[in-house]
Amino acid sequence: MKIKQLNNEKRGDELKNQRSQYKLVYGMVLNPHDDKKCDFYRDGAILLESVSAKGIYVVKDLGDVSYINKKYSKLLQPLCKCEDEVEVVDLKDHVILPSFFDMHFHWVQDDVRLKSKASLLEWLSKYAWPCENKFKDKKFSKRVAKKFFNKLPSYGTLGGAIYSSIHEHAIHNAMENAIGDFIIGNVLMTINSPDYLVQTKEQALKLVKKLAQKYGKKYAVTPRFAPSTDPITMKKSAAIAKKHGSFIQSHLSENLKEIDYVLSIYRGDYKEKGFKNVATYTDIYKKVAVLSPKTLMAHAIYLSNKECQLLAKTKTALIHCPTSNAPVSEMGLSSGLFDFKKMERKNIRWALGTDIGGGPFISMFDVMRSFVDQNRKKKRMSATYVKALYRATLAGAEILNISKTNGNLAKKKYANFIAVKSPKSLSKSGKQNAEIVLKKIIETISSRDQLENLVNYTFYKGNLFFKR
Ligand SMILES: [Zn+2]
Questions:
Q1: Of 363, 379, 399, which residue constitutes the final position of a domain?
Q2: Residue 109 maps to which CATH number?
Q3: How is residue 106 annotated by DSSP?
């Protein structure tokens, strides 16, 4: 493995990657397009071109080495006067794929992701909330933000949707340290929350206004879930999101006990406010106008046909977190399994997420594994690795409205990609396609250690941000 003049620094702003006009990356390349189509180049090459003095690179072209060599022969010939203009990144013993979008996770729950789980509501009060409470300490929050967001690229994640705690400084810390394309929101907790982790409506709305103004489309108004945020705060904060072009994110129908709990609160405490006969969990969100094309709802496991219609009509996106929803024996919360086939029939957009700390591992490879594994057990055979990769990359960029420049390795998009060691079982001969390659990569994961160490290189906008 050889990378010419490659800098080994891990943090972006400190990186001094060579500023050549072009970079030529050799390796096996996987490039997802949709649920069924993913290009695979066994002897692949990606040509990157610098588009700014700051050293931002986009994909100029990709394909088989022979195609790139022929098409760009003048540029690439060894004695060309532009020789110094091309940096060669040789990753021939690696598989290169676009970096991930993790569309639902709580950065403030990293410490409790491996804690024992039984049920959602119990896990929240026993582990998640006490963990988030620690972020009231400014020094602690800053320290953890640096550490967490520094390690995130080592898992190949360079985009997605993040939940922060209720504390203002914690979301600033996350915004300052996150490397990649994320939307981030502070959870709103005005009701049914522990004394140490609760805000008044006024506090919550004042903060939403300030943060939406400051961060605009990078901000996500984040009512934690309907039982934790009162309807007036939800409605007013959703209006603020719309005004500033911000996103909205929350949780919906994760498990049956939770649904009963939500409906009992709204039909009881808020019966005078128009919720007396509210039919479903989704109806509550509809009544407070949080459903929209810029809204992301996590989990969505138990939905009636009417609820699906409502989500489709409002163009709300759903985020499926298979490892978080998996059985307790697999370190999940045993919530159930998202019905992706039904959602696709109803034309509802969806993407994958880890749901750290409900989900145990930061790696989206584990999420892809779990998605395929759980669905195949239910005989849903259209749950392929190709589909999982699309839903872990481009589908996320589409939901965040940045797919013109992000999400895969199409021409003119930012060169955001990762490289994993090519599996030994991937011999030169024999049938090879994207599905087989992805399956073999995922099959190499037989321990937590291997999962943690799968990604060897992470490039953001063509610059190396992580090297193992
Ligand atoms: Zn969550």
A1: 399
A2: 3.20.20.140
A3: E
Chain centroid to CA 109: how far?
15
Question: Which residues lie at CB < 5 A from ion ligand 1?
Answer: 355
How many angstroms is it from 324 CA to the middle of ligand 1?
Answer: 9
Distance 63 CA to ligand 1 centre (A): 38
**Could you tell me if 208 and 322 lie in one domain?**
yes
Distance CA 459, CA 348 (A): 31
For residue 466, what are the β-bridge partners?
A: 458
227 and 209 both lie in a single domain: yes
136's tokens? 């009231």
By the 8 A CB rule, do 388 and 368 touch?
yes
Query: Residue 392: which residues within 8 A CB-CB, separation 6 or more?
Result: 100, 101, 102, 351, 352, 364, 367, 368
The answer to whether the beta carbons of residues 180 and 159 sit under 8 Å apart is yes
397, amino acid identity: A
How far does residue 165's CA lie from ligand 1's centre (Å)?
A: 12
Last residue of a domain, one of 379, 399, 419: 399
**Residue 283 CA to ligand 1 centre (angstroms):** 20
Same domain, 340 and 203: yes
What predicted TM-score, i.e. pTM, was given to this entire model?
A: 0.94
Digit-coded pLDDT (tens) for 37-95: 999 999 999 999 999 878 899 999 999 999 999 999 888 776 555 556 889 999 999 99
pLDDT tens track for 225-257: 999 999 999 999 999 999 999 999 999 999 999
The stretch 255-275 carries a mean pLDDT of 94
Residue 389 lies in domain = 100-399
